Amino acid sequence: MKIVALVAAAASLAFALNLATGLHAFIDVPSIAFIANAILASFVAVGFKRQGILVVADIALQVSIVGMLIGYVGILQNMSDPEALPFAFAIMLLVVFYGLLVAATCSLLSSNITEPISAPSVWQRVVGVFLWVVVVTYAMDGAAGVEAFFDPASLLIVAALSLIIFGTSASEGLRTLARHLPVAGFLGVLVGVIGMLQNMSDPKAMGPSMAVAILTLMYCNLGSVALKLAFPEMTPEKSDAHFTYLGFVLLFVMGITSVSILSFM
Question: What average pLDDT score do residues 173-194 get?
Fold first, then answer.
């Protein structure tokens, strides 16, 4: 019954999108490949069992956030063509659109899965994480070059947050780290935004602070997803799909974009 409902919903959504702007506007092969690779990594990590749905439901929105932030950095690196920016922003948000669809679908399907995820073999863990790292590296290189995503200040903030979270929960350190690292990443966001606001009179000085805000959040989600793929047995049977968290990230992206535009006016 759920499958029939999902098929009917997909058909209705496709018809609605076609009426809105045309289906072609919602098709972006790199974004689809980015989400699809994360789905493949999830199923590899659990040995291609149906419990992979639980892992996908748990990481789909975080994966889309990482993809969105990678795209955002790419846009910032190519601000010389303002006319292309609306299209670039639309493409950046498509990965979030796909992530929402995947997360919602897997959340519904996961209600039929009662068996816990058994501890996978080492090769399954390694291949799952490897697929995730490869697609992220490829996306970074295509967006702005891998070097554009290296920021020592952001890395140090993430390292400090990781040590605090891990050190205060020794009994379930990795599980707690995977769960709370994305939220803790907003500390880096605050650090970056405060720096941006203090340098609004000098737009060129805002760059490092913006990098801290964006990359800290990206690193935290990237690391959290890697941990969940390396230890899929930590995935809860009833996964929280993080819709509220995604909302905060979208607000942050819109806010930081507004501040950037105001600074150049």
Answer: 87
